[in-house]
Every structure is written in structure tokens, then in C-alpha cells.
Design goal:
InterPro entries: DUF2268 (IPR018728). By secondary structure, this protein is of the alpha/beta class. The protein has 2 domains: 168 residues, no CATH class; 125 residues, no CATH class. Helix content is 53%, strand content 7%. It is built from 15 helices and 4 strands. Strands 1-2-4-3 form a 4-stranded mixed β-sheet. A hairpin with a 5-residue loop joins strand 3 and strand 4. Helix 1 packs antiparallel against helix 2, helix 8 crosses helix 9 and helix 9 packs across helix 14. The protein is globular, with a radius of gyration of 19 Å. The model has no long low-confidence stretch (mean pLDDT 96).
């Protein structure tokens, strides 16, 4: 397999310095290599509109702030760090899953929108999407904590990508459960922690609720719920769900991540597996094993 981290630094710098009227077309060209990520969407996806909906950097304001942030990423060697991280992590995952043929992967790192209150607030200035085989996008604002965790963010999404690639776990939008999503997040975090340690490996979103037993019990009560439209509330929590127009269920931000970590840690402890070896573990088995161990 070959993993290509796109040179979005040069593209974003050119976009942010271009006349406003030219920026949409330039952004569309930058995003074009990720078009295959949207192959399951009905109809043709407007890449620029999706960029905006996903808290990508703005095209008509905050230019200097974004240019300064872009230079912060460059000074941190973000693109080379991500390339090394995903290459090294892929080698670990493939060694642990003999016979699995991983796809080539395109990775896009994009600046986030500093004016998006949900992105900069509850989402802590970072979002990632690696669930569609062959593509990873990470939208990030380079505050010190996000920069420090850059490798962890990248390998977390890589674990997702290889989990849901052909030959792995099938994500069927009609039948997939909250439990699969929660376990997937827990496994991806566990993998990042195996490589980089607990201080950095946890997704920041779920850290505050790691020891919240009430939230854990609530998430466990919803593990069999199907319908992806419900997942934001169960995994990301009420605040982010409401921002997305999803009905809240009474959970704090990141509760699904912390619950996933607790379930996966119990499963890995009970089975002696690593998160790399558990890349394609059945989520129902993970949950059953973990809950039995916690009784």
C-alpha cells in the first residue's frame, strides 16, 4: 500500500493569498483528490460546500489569521510528521493482520475555521474522517495541544480506514449500530495509545468523561441503536449533536469516545490482543467480552 499525504500547505497558502473571487475554484482543485471519499453520497457532491459544512477554513475572512496558523503548521513540520506517522502505523497494522490487503490511501490536512464556534469550542479545533476506504481528511486548528497530538490524530483515522476497508468490517448504513461506532473509536484510540502513550493517544474529546460511570452506563444502554442519524448524540454528545440538528439524548461531549475506550480496554485485557491485532474485531464480541469482564 502507498499512503500519500497531500501538499495542502502550498495549496492553502495560494488560496488564502488569492483574490476572493478566485478562491472557490482553487479550493475545489485542492479538494479534487479526495472526491472518491464521497462515492456513496447520492448525486454529485459540491466539494466547496462540504468543506464549509465541515468547518474548513473560510474563503472570505480571517485571511491573516489563517495564514499565520498555516505557518504554525509548517513550522511544526506537520505534513512530514503525519507522513511518518501513518507509514509507521500502517506497517504495525499490516504486520498484525497477515493476509489483509490494505488500499492505497490519500490523506488531506486542512486548516479549520477559527470563526466556527462549534469547531473551536466543543470539538476542540480538530475533526477527522477516515471511515471511507482509501481516504482520510483531518481538519485542524494548530493550537499547542492539537499540534502535540498530530501523529495520534493521524493514526487514529488510519485505524478507522483499515478497519472499514474491503476485507475488514462492513459499515452498512442501514444496519450499523451505535456499538460499532463506539467500539471503532475505542479501538482507534487504543491503537494511538499503543504507539504514543496514554498522555497523547486519547482523542481529546473523550478525556473529560473517561471516569464518568453515569455517562458510560448511558452509552451502553444505546449500543444496539441503529440509524446513522442518531450517532452524533450517542458518540459526540448533546452539544455537538444539537449543532448538527440531531436530537440530544442526555450525554456530555465525547461520551461515546470514553465509553469506547473503556469497552475496548476491557476487551483487550481479557483477550490479550493489541489494538492492531483487533483491527477487524467484531464489535458485538468486543462489547460482550468487555461487559462480562466488568460484571
Amino acid at each position: 500500500m502507498t499512503i500519500t499525504v497531500l501538499d495542502s500547505y502550498s495549496a492553502m497558502k495560494q488560496i488564502l493569498q488569492a483574490p476572493v473571487a478566485d478562491r472557490k475554484g482553487m479550493l475545489r482543485a485542492m479538494l479534487e483528490p479526495t472526491t472518491g471519499m464521497y462515492r456513496y453520497f447520492p448525486g454529485e457532491v459540491d466539494l466547496v460546500a462540504f468543506h464549509r459544512q465541515s468547518a474548513g477554513f473560510p474563503l472570505d475572512r480571517d485571511e491573516q489569521r489563517c495564514l499565520d496558523a498555516l505557518e504554525t503548521l509548517a513550522a511544526a513540520d506537520a505534513w512530514k510528521r503525519m507522513q511518518r506517522a501513518v507509514d509507521d502505523a500502517a506497517a504495525v497494522l499490516l504486520a498484525a493482520t497477515p493476509g489483509f490487503r490494505a488500499p492505497d490511501i490519500t490523506v488531506l490536512l486542512a486548516l479549520g475555521d477559527p470563526g466556527d464556534t462549534n469547531f473551536m469550542g466543543p470539538s476542540l479545533g480538530v475533526t477527522g474522517f477516515g471511515g471511507i476506504s482509501g481516504y482520510i481528511t483531518i481538519t485542524l486548528w494548530p493550537d499547542p495541544e492539537n499540534l502535540e497530538r498530530l501523529e495520534c490524530t493521524a493514526v487514529h483515522e488510519l485505524h478507522h480506514n483499515l478497519r472499514y476497508s474491503p476485507g475488514g468490517v462492513v459499515w452498512d448504513p442501514m444496519t450499523v449500530t451505535v456499538g460499532e461506532h463506539v467500539v471503532g473509536e475505542g479501538l482507534a484510540d487504543a491503537f494511538a495509545r499503543e504507539l504514543y502513550g496514554d498522555d497523547l493517544g486519547y482523542a481529546r474529546l473523550g478525556v473529560p468523561t473517561l471516569h464518568d460511570d453515569e455517562s458510560f452506563t448511558k452509552v451502553v444502554s444505546g449500543l444496539n441503536i441503529t440509524g446513522m442519524q442518531n450517532f452524533a448524540a450517542w458518540v459526540h454528545g448533546d452539544t455537538i449533536a444539537e449543532h448538527l440538528g440531531v436530537t440530544p439524548v442526555g450525554l456530555p461531549t465525547g461520551a461515546g469516545y470514553s465509553a469506547g475506550n473503556r469497552l475496548v480496554d476491557a476487551y483487550l485485557a481479557a483477550t490479550g490482543k493489541s489494538a492492531a491485532e483487533a483491527l477487524h474485531a467484531d464489535s458485538a464480541e468486543v462489547i460482550a467480552t468487555a461487559l462480562a469482564a466488568n460484571r
